[in-house]
Amino acid sequence: MRVNIVNKNGQANIRVLIKHPMETGMRKDKGTGKVVPAHFIQTLKIEHKGQVVIDAKCGVAVSKDPFFYFKVGGVAAGDAVKITWKDNLGKSESKDETVA
Amino acid sequence: MNFDVKRRLMLKGSMAAGLATVAAAAGLLSPTVVLAAWPKAAFEAKSINNALSSLLGSSAMTDSGDVKIKAPSIAENGAVVNVVVKTKMSDVESISILVEKNGNPLAFSADLAKSADPFVKTRVKLGQTSKVIGVIKAGGKIYSASRIVKVTVGGCGG
User: Is the pLDDT of residue A17 over 90?
Assistant: First the structure.
Protein backbone atom coordinates (compact mmCIF):
# COMPACT_ATOMS: atom_id res chain seq x y z
CA MET A 1 0.00 0.00 0.00
CA ARG A 2 1.32 3.43 -0.91
CA VAL A 3 0.03 6.50 0.90
CA ASN A 4 0.67 10.12 0.08
CA ILE A 5 -0.52 12.87 2.40
CA VAL A 6 -0.24 16.53 1.48
CA ASN A 7 -0.99 19.08 4.18
CA LYS A 8 -2.67 21.98 2.42
CA ASN A 9 -3.32 24.67 5.05
CA GLY A 10 -4.73 22.23 7.59
CA GLN A 11 -6.47 20.01 5.06
CA ALA A 12 -4.91 16.63 4.49
CA ASN A 13 -5.17 15.44 0.90
CA ILE A 14 -4.83 11.69 1.30
CA ARG A 15 -4.09 9.48 -1.70
CA VAL A 16 -4.02 5.72 -1.23
CA LEU A 17 -2.87 3.15 -3.79
CA ILE A 18 -3.25 -0.51 -2.90
CA LYS A 19 -1.90 -3.51 -4.80
CA HIS A 20 -4.86 -5.89 -4.94
CA PRO A 21 -6.36 -8.15 -7.66
CA MET A 22 -9.99 -7.07 -6.97
CA GLU A 23 -11.33 -10.29 -8.51
CA THR A 24 -15.07 -10.07 -9.13
CA GLY A 25 -15.77 -13.80 -8.86
CA MET A 26 -17.32 -13.65 -12.33
CA ARG A 27 -14.17 -13.79 -14.46
CA LYS A 28 -13.03 -17.06 -16.02
CA ASP A 29 -9.38 -18.03 -16.16
CA LYS A 30 -8.49 -18.14 -19.86
CA GLY A 31 -6.19 -21.16 -19.43
CA THR A 32 -8.28 -23.46 -17.25
CA GLY A 33 -11.76 -22.13 -18.04
CA LYS A 34 -12.54 -22.12 -14.33
CA VAL A 35 -14.14 -19.19 -12.56
CA VAL A 36 -11.59 -17.20 -10.56
CA PRO A 37 -12.97 -16.87 -7.01
CA ALA A 38 -13.92 -13.41 -5.76
CA HIS A 39 -11.10 -11.64 -3.93
CA PHE A 40 -11.66 -7.96 -3.27
CA ILE A 41 -11.19 -5.23 -0.68
CA GLN A 42 -14.36 -4.67 1.33
CA THR A 43 -13.46 -1.95 3.79
CA LEU A 44 -11.04 0.94 3.93
CA LYS A 45 -10.75 3.01 7.06
CA ILE A 46 -8.86 6.23 7.67
CA GLU A 47 -8.20 7.36 11.22
CA HIS A 48 -7.00 10.80 12.24
CA LYS A 49 -5.54 10.87 15.76
CA GLY A 50 -7.41 7.64 16.59
CA GLN A 51 -10.81 8.85 15.33
CA VAL A 52 -12.30 7.28 12.22
CA VAL A 53 -12.84 10.05 9.66
CA ILE A 54 -13.46 7.95 6.53
CA ASP A 55 -15.24 4.61 6.71
CA ALA A 56 -15.34 3.32 3.13
CA LYS A 57 -16.80 0.14 1.70
CA CYS A 58 -16.00 -1.33 -1.68
CA GLY A 59 -17.71 -3.77 -3.99
CA VAL A 60 -16.17 -5.85 -6.75
CA ALA A 61 -16.60 -2.96 -9.19
CA VAL A 62 -13.72 -1.01 -7.70
CA SER A 63 -10.82 -1.32 -10.17
CA LYS A 64 -7.83 -3.61 -9.74
CA ASP A 65 -5.02 -2.02 -7.69
CA PRO A 66 -7.49 0.47 -6.17
CA PHE A 67 -6.80 4.16 -5.89
CA PHE A 68 -8.59 6.43 -3.42
CA TYR A 69 -8.37 10.14 -2.81
CA PHE A 70 -9.93 11.77 0.24
CA LYS A 71 -9.67 15.17 1.90
CA VAL A 72 -9.75 15.57 5.66
CA GLY A 73 -9.83 18.92 7.40
CA GLY A 74 -8.65 20.04 10.83
CA VAL A 75 -5.21 18.50 10.62
CA ALA A 76 -1.89 19.83 11.84
CA ALA A 77 1.69 18.84 11.19
CA GLY A 78 2.66 15.84 13.29
CA ASP A 79 -0.86 14.37 13.47
CA ALA A 80 -1.10 10.61 13.20
CA VAL A 81 -3.08 9.16 10.29
CA LYS A 82 -3.73 5.44 10.04
CA ILE A 83 -5.04 3.69 6.94
CA THR A 84 -6.40 0.14 7.13
CA TRP A 85 -7.97 -2.09 4.48
CA LYS A 86 -9.52 -5.52 4.77
CA ASP A 87 -10.65 -7.91 2.02
CA ASN A 88 -13.28 -10.64 1.73
CA LEU A 89 -10.72 -13.37 2.52
CA GLY A 90 -9.84 -11.71 5.82
CA LYS A 91 -6.50 -10.33 4.64
CA SER A 92 -5.70 -6.83 5.80
CA GLU A 93 -2.98 -4.24 5.85
CA SER A 94 -2.56 -1.02 7.76
CA LYS A 95 -0.13 1.83 7.60
CA ASP A 96 0.72 4.58 10.04
CA GLU A 97 1.57 7.95 8.61
CA THR A 98 2.38 11.36 10.03
CA VAL A 99 1.08 14.59 8.55
CA ALA A 100 4.01 16.67 7.32
CA MET B 1 -38.34 -20.50 50.33
CA ASN B 2 -37.80 -21.51 46.73
CA PHE B 3 -39.79 -18.53 45.57
CA ASP B 4 -37.73 -16.27 47.78
CA VAL B 5 -34.45 -17.44 46.23
CA LYS B 6 -35.78 -16.88 42.75
CA ARG B 7 -36.95 -13.46 43.75
CA ARG B 8 -33.52 -12.59 45.06
CA LEU B 9 -31.89 -13.79 41.84
CA MET B 10 -34.29 -11.73 39.85
CA LEU B 11 -33.54 -8.66 41.90
CA LYS B 12 -29.82 -9.20 41.44
CA GLY B 13 -30.31 -9.71 37.72
CA SER B 14 -32.33 -6.60 37.21
CA MET B 15 -29.84 -4.57 39.21
CA ALA B 16 -26.98 -5.76 37.00
CA ALA B 17 -29.01 -5.01 33.88
CA GLY B 18 -29.80 -1.59 35.25
CA LEU B 19 -26.15 -0.84 35.79
CA ALA B 20 -25.28 -1.98 32.26
CA THR B 21 -27.96 0.31 30.85
CA VAL B 22 -26.59 3.26 32.79
CA ALA B 23 -23.04 2.49 31.63
CA ALA B 24 -24.14 2.21 28.01
CA ALA B 25 -26.12 5.42 28.22
CA ALA B 26 -23.09 7.21 29.57
CA GLY B 27 -21.13 5.99 26.59
CA LEU B 28 -18.81 3.88 28.70
CA LEU B 29 -19.43 0.67 26.82
CA SER B 30 -19.81 1.96 23.28
CA PRO B 31 -16.71 2.59 21.16
CA THR B 32 -16.10 6.14 19.89
CA VAL B 33 -17.27 5.34 16.37
CA VAL B 34 -19.42 2.36 15.56
CA LEU B 35 -17.99 0.77 12.44
CA ALA B 36 -20.60 -0.88 10.33
CA ALA B 37 -19.75 -4.25 8.87
CA TRP B 38 -19.53 -4.65 5.08
CA PRO B 39 -23.11 -4.17 3.80
CA LYS B 40 -23.38 -7.41 1.83
CA ALA B 41 -27.04 -6.99 0.81
CA ALA B 42 -26.42 -3.52 -0.63
CA PHE B 43 -23.40 -4.57 -2.67
CA GLU B 44 -25.12 -7.71 -3.95
CA ALA B 45 -28.37 -5.93 -4.83
CA LYS B 46 -29.19 -6.15 -8.55
CA SER B 47 -30.97 -2.81 -8.84
CA ILE B 48 -30.13 0.74 -7.84
CA ASN B 49 -33.31 1.04 -5.77
CA ASN B 50 -32.59 -2.10 -3.77
CA ALA B 51 -28.95 -1.15 -3.26
CA LEU B 52 -29.83 2.32 -1.99
CA SER B 53 -32.66 1.26 0.28
CA SER B 54 -30.44 -1.40 1.79
CA LEU B 55 -27.47 0.95 2.19
CA LEU B 56 -29.07 4.28 3.07
CA GLY B 57 -32.52 3.23 4.24
CA SER B 58 -34.32 4.87 1.32
CA SER B 59 -34.11 4.92 -2.47
CA ALA B 60 -35.80 8.30 -2.91
CA MET B 61 -33.08 10.18 -4.81
CA THR B 62 -33.40 13.82 -5.74
CA ASP B 63 -31.41 15.02 -8.75
CA SER B 64 -29.32 17.89 -7.55
CA GLY B 65 -27.04 20.35 -9.27
CA ASP B 66 -25.15 20.63 -6.00
CA VAL B 67 -23.80 17.11 -6.44
CA LYS B 68 -20.83 17.23 -8.77
CA ILE B 69 -19.71 14.11 -10.59
CA LYS B 70 -16.69 13.94 -12.84
CA ALA B 71 -16.13 10.99 -15.16
CA PRO B 72 -14.83 10.67 -18.73
CA SER B 73 -17.50 10.71 -21.45
CA ILE B 74 -15.59 8.00 -23.31
CA ALA B 75 -13.57 5.32 -21.55
CA GLU B 76 -11.33 3.20 -23.75
CA ASN B 77 -10.89 0.74 -20.93
CA GLY B 78 -13.99 -0.03 -18.89
CA ALA B 79 -11.85 -1.69 -16.21
CA VAL B 80 -10.38 1.62 -15.03
CA VAL B 81 -12.71 4.60 -15.03
CA ASN B 82 -11.81 7.60 -12.87
CA VAL B 83 -14.76 9.02 -10.95
CA VAL B 84 -14.90 12.06 -8.68
CA VAL B 85 -17.96 12.85 -6.57
CA LYS B 86 -18.08 16.00 -4.49
CA THR B 87 -20.45 18.63 -3.15
CA LYS B 88 -20.51 21.89 -1.24
CA MET B 89 -23.49 20.74 0.87
CA SER B 90 -23.13 20.63 4.63
CA ASP B 91 -23.96 17.76 7.00
CA VAL B 92 -22.83 15.18 4.46
CA GLU B 93 -23.04 11.70 5.94
CA SER B 94 -21.93 9.57 3.02
CA ILE B 95 -20.86 9.52 -0.62
CA SER B 96 -21.62 6.55 -2.87
CA ILE B 97 -20.86 5.61 -6.46
CA LEU B 98 -23.16 3.40 -8.50
CA VAL B 99 -22.85 2.03 -12.05
CA GLU B 100 -26.33 1.54 -13.51
CA LYS B 101 -25.56 -1.25 -15.98
CA ASN B 102 -23.28 -3.33 -13.76
CA GLY B 103 -24.79 -6.56 -12.42
CA ASN B 104 -24.41 -5.16 -8.92
CA PRO B 105 -24.77 -1.38 -9.36
CA LEU B 106 -23.25 -0.30 -6.03
CA ALA B 107 -19.48 0.08 -6.48
CA PHE B 108 -18.28 2.19 -3.58
CA SER B 109 -19.55 4.05 -0.56
CA ALA B 110 -17.86 6.05 2.20
CA ASP B 111 -19.22 7.32 5.51
CA LEU B 112 -17.64 10.64 6.35
CA ALA B 113 -16.93 12.22 9.70
CA LYS B 114 -17.64 15.94 10.15
CA SER B 115 -13.99 16.84 9.53
CA ALA B 116 -13.86 15.01 6.20
CA ASP B 117 -14.43 17.04 3.05
CA PRO B 118 -17.40 15.78 0.99
CA PHE B 119 -15.08 14.65 -1.78
CA VAL B 120 -13.99 11.29 -3.09
CA LYS B 121 -12.03 10.11 -6.07
CA THR B 122 -11.57 6.49 -7.06
CA ARG B 123 -11.50 4.16 -10.06
CA VAL B 124 -14.32 1.79 -10.92
CA LYS B 125 -15.09 -0.92 -13.48
CA LEU B 126 -17.83 -0.60 -16.11
CA GLY B 127 -18.99 -3.75 -17.86
CA GLN B 128 -20.49 -1.69 -20.70
CA THR B 129 -21.55 1.85 -21.57
CA SER B 130 -23.50 3.04 -18.54
CA LYS B 131 -24.72 5.85 -16.42
CA VAL B 132 -22.43 6.45 -13.42
CA ILE B 133 -24.30 7.90 -10.46
CA GLY B 134 -22.87 9.89 -7.59
CA VAL B 135 -25.03 9.79 -4.47
CA ILE B 136 -24.72 12.10 -1.48
CA LYS B 137 -26.59 11.59 1.76
CA ALA B 138 -26.83 14.88 3.61
CA GLY B 139 -29.10 15.84 6.48
CA GLY B 140 -30.98 12.55 6.12
CA LYS B 141 -31.85 13.18 2.46
CA ILE B 142 -30.42 11.54 -0.65
CA TYR B 143 -29.18 13.63 -3.59
CA SER B 144 -27.69 12.43 -6.85
CA ALA B 145 -26.10 13.39 -10.12
CA SER B 146 -25.08 11.21 -13.02
CA ARG B 147 -22.96 11.04 -16.15
CA ILE B 148 -22.98 8.62 -19.03
CA VAL B 149 -19.67 6.94 -19.70
CA LYS B 150 -19.30 5.29 -23.09
CA VAL B 151 -17.13 2.20 -22.97
CA THR B 152 -15.38 1.35 -26.23
CA VAL B 153 -14.07 -2.18 -25.95
CA GLY B 154 -11.72 -3.11 -28.75
CA GLY B 155 -9.28 -0.29 -28.32
CA CYS B 156 -10.16 1.71 -31.47
CA GLY B 157 -11.53 4.51 -29.35
CA GLY B 158 -14.74 4.89 -31.42
Answer: yes
- What DSSP line would sit under A15-47, residue for residue? EEE-----B-S-PBPTTT-PBPPPB-EEEEEEE
Task: Identify which of B106, B109, B123 has the shortest CB distance to residue A63.
Answer: B123
State the Cα–Cα distance between residues B81 and B72, nearest whole angstrom.
7
Asked whether this complex has an ipTM greater than 0.90, the answer is yes
- A62·B104 Cβ contact <8 A: no
pLDDT, mean of residues A40-50: 97
Domain B44-151 in CATH 3.40.1190.20? The answer is: no
A20 reaches B (C-beta below 8 A): no
Q: How many domains does chain A have?
A: 1
The answer, yes or no, to whether residue B17 has pLDDT greater than 50, is yes
Does the residue A38 lie in any domain? yes
Partner residue facing A48 (CB), from B104, B110, B115: B115
